[in-house]
Amino acid sequence: MQIWVDADACPSVIKDILFRAAQRTKIQTTLIANHFMRVPASPYIQFVQVASGFDIADNEIVKRLNVGDIVITGDIPLAAEVIEKGGQALNPRGELYTTENIKARLTMRDFMETMRSSGIMTEGAAPFSHTDRKAFADQLDRLLAQHCQI
Question: Taking the chain, what is the end-to-end CA distance rounded to the nearest angstrom?
Fold first, then answer.
């Protein structure tokens, strides 16, 4: 199992949690982004920079993903592809995307996008909070504990 991070929009506090988890569990964690970012020197953490462009980082994650891998992303279409390929998708706010909830999330995303494109103003996501960080850390720990029991 590996952890893949859609790193372009991933909050720094979530990256820090992932870096500590990679060291603690010795699970390979790879950040993929289209702009350079620093990662700690570790045999368990790496960074891959891809070209700029629509869905380039997402496509790279899907290409490298294996069954059972975990992907950290807030991108719902990417999460759907991850689930379809047999991976697990966790967003930075601690929500685990599943086969049971991904279709509803895609539908709501498409609906909101349609509203915005027709000129209706919608609220953006709430600011990232301490509660979000804790929910993420707790859900990540549950996923990693399941992996360690296998």
Answer: 11
